[in-house]
User: What shape does this take?
Amino acid sequence: MRASFGRLWTAAAVAWVCVCATGCGNSVKGHTYTGNGQLVSIQFQSGGKAYVSMGPMTSTCTYTQSGNNITLVCEGDTEQLALAGDGSLNGPPDGMLAHLTRAK
Assistant: This one.
């Protein structure tokens, strides 16, 4: 009985590490995404801060991430982005943030 209880705890600990490692790999924090011929870039910082550059103009924005959904707020405008399985970001199909790839 004692050996099975120890194996159960080991299995639970391994499962928890796997869940945490998977969740951490899906964060945009610390990464830069570019798109639209490198005309657009988003640098996601810690603390929910992001810098969005469109051409020569850069805005300080905020973001939140819930799973694969990112909400980006810049100067009162809100954009919804989705983190794709390949690590890219997808935004509204008709906008400047339609498809962004991770630069670093």
